[in-house]
Amino acid sequence: MADILDLILKKKPDWIHLLDEEGRTPLHWAACIGYLEGVRFLLGRNASIATERDKNGLFPIHVASAKGHVHLIQELLQYWPNSRELLNHNGQNILHVAATTGELNVVNYILKTPGLESLINDTDKDGNTPIYLNASIATERDKNGLFPIHVASTKGHVHLIQELLQYWPNSRELLNHNGQNILHVAATTGELNVVNYILKTPGLESLINDTDKDGNTPLHLATMHWHAKLVSAFTWDKKVDLTLINSEGLTALDIAECSIGNTFTFRQRLTLIPLRAAGVPRNPSANTRRQFSTRLEAQKTDICKDKVNTLLLVSTVVATVTFAAGFSIPGGYNSSGEDSGTATLITHKFFHVFIFCDTIAMYTSVVVAVTLIWAQLGDVHLVLIALKTASPLLGVALATMSLAFLAAVYLVVSTLNWLANVIMIMGLVFLVALIARYFFLWFPMSSSCLILRYVSYYPFCLLVLVAGSGELVV
C-alpha cells in the first residue's frame, strides 16, 4: 500500500493536501482506518499535514481518538507534542473526543501517559470536562477488568481520582475482576500519594479495610509487594484494622514473615519494621507461622555465628590499633629533665581529646571482645543478648577511635592553620557519617514503644528513600 502511495505522490505531490467533501486529507483517512504505515509515510513526506483541520475542525489525531486507534495517537503526538493545543472548533481535546465516542482504550492510554493526564481537567467552549460529556465511560471496564479510576490509581494521579469520583461517588462498587477497589490497586503498585489521599478523605473510609476475592486488605497487598512506606502509612492510621486475616488465615505480619526466603532483602526488613512496631498480631493457628518459626530458628545459628565472628574481628583490630596508639602518641616524649618520659604536648587540649578517646576506644573494644566470647557457648538466646550488648559498644569504640585519630592529626599540623582547619572539617564530616550509619544498625526501630516509634519515623523514611526499589540482600 505504501508503494502505491509513493507512486501517486511522485506524479501528483500536491495530492498530499487533497481534500474530500468533508475537508479531510489523506492523513485524516489513514487515521480513520487505523493505517499506521500510511500515517508514517504521509508524515514522512510532509509533517505539516498533521496540523490540518477538516470542515468539522478536527485534526487527524482527533479522528484517530474517535476511532480508538491508540497506536496512531502515539505516532501523531511525536509531531505535535503539546497535546493541549490540539483543540477542535468546540475547544475539545483528544480526550473529549474519545470520551464522547466511548473509546475506553484511548481514555485509559491518556490517563496512564505522563504529560497527558492533565487533559481530563480541560474544559471545552461550553465548560464541559471530558468525563462530563460521557459520564458512563467512568463505569466501563477495559479488557483487564479495570475501570478508568483503577488506571489512575496505578499511576498515582490523585487529581484524576478526584475528578472520576464525582461521577461515581460510591467507590466501593468500583471493583476489578479480583474484587479490588482503588485502594487495593494503589497498595499493590506502591502509590503512596493515592494511599494518603484515601486515608485522609472523609467518605472513603469504607475502602480502608475492604477485602478482595482472596480476603486481602490493602495492608495485606502492600505487605505482599514489600512497599515499606505504604505499610508504615497504614500502620500509623487508626482507621486501619491491623488484626484482619485473609482467606488463608494470615495477618499482614504472617504474610511478611512467611514470604521471606533464606535471605532477607533490605526492602523486606524495612517492611517488617512498621508491622512489628505497630503491634500487628500473628495468627497462632496458621500452619505457615510454624513453618516460618522452624525456618527462622535454623537460620539464626548460622547468621548469628557470622555476626559474632565479624564483630569479634573488628573489635580485636580496634583494640590492637588503639593499644599501639597509646604508646606512639603525637609529638613524642620528653627525653630529658624532670618531665622525661612524659608527652611533649600534654598541656594541649587536643592531646587531652586524643588520650580520652583512645582510652575509651581501647577499653570498649576489649569489653566487646569479652562479651562476644560468651556468645561462643552455643546458646542462641545468649548469642542474641551478646550481640545486642556488643553492637552499640563497638559503635562507641569506632567513633572514639576515629575522633582520637582526628585529634592526633590536628595536633601535628596545628601550626599551619588552613591545613588544620581543613583536616578538622573533613574529620567531623566523616565522623558524623559514621555515627549516622551505625545508628541505623542498632536503633530499635521495631520497638512498639510509642515514643521510640515517633523518634524512629524519620530515620525509617530516610532508609526507605535510600533503599528505593532495589533488592539489596543483607
Set down the secondary structure blueprint:
Layout: H1 2-11, H2 26-33, H3 36-45, H4 60-67, H5 70-77, H6 94-101, H7 104-112, H8 130-133, H9 148-154, H10 158-165, H11 182-189, H12 192-200, H13 218-224, H14 228-236, H15 252-259, H16 266-277, H17 287-327, H18 349-374, H19 380-413, H20 417-442, H21 450-467
Helix pairs in contact: 2-3, 2-4, 4-5, 4-6, 7-9, 9-10, 9-11, 11-13, 12-14, 13-15, 14-16, 15-16, 16-21, 17-18, 17-19, 18-19, 19-20
Protein name: Protein accelerated cell death 6
Transmembrane segments: 310-330, 350-375, 382-412, 418-443, 455-473
ANK repeats: 22-54, 56-78, 90-112, 144-166, 178-200
H-E order: HHHHHHHHHHHHHHHHHHHHH
Spatial shape: elongated
Which strand-content bin applies to the residues?
Answer: under 5%
Output mean pLDDT: 84
Computed over alpha carbons, the radius of gyration is 34 Å
> How many β-strand runs?
0
Task: Point out poorly predicted stretches.
Answer: 469-474
Distance between the termini: 58 Å
Largest sheet: none
Q: Count helical runs.
A: 21
Give the helix/strand class: mainly alpha
Helix percent reads: 55-70%
Question: Can you walk me through this structure?
Answer:
The chain has 474 residues and is mostly helical. Among the domains are: 170-279 and 452-474, Alpha Horseshoe (Serine Threonine Protein Phosphatase 5, Tetratricopeptide repeat), CATH 1.25.40.20; 305-447, no CATH class. Helix content is 59%, strand content 0%. It is built from 21 helices and no strands. Helix 9 packs antiparallel against helix 10 and helix 19 (380-413) packs antiparallel against helix 20. It is elongated. Residues 469-474 have low confidence and may be disordered. It is found in: Membrane. Residues 304-412 form the PGG domain. The chain crosses the membrane at residues 310-330, 350-375, 382-412, 418-443, 455-473. It is a multi-pass membrane protein. Keywords: ANK repeat, Membrane, Repeat, Transmembrane, Transmembrane helix.
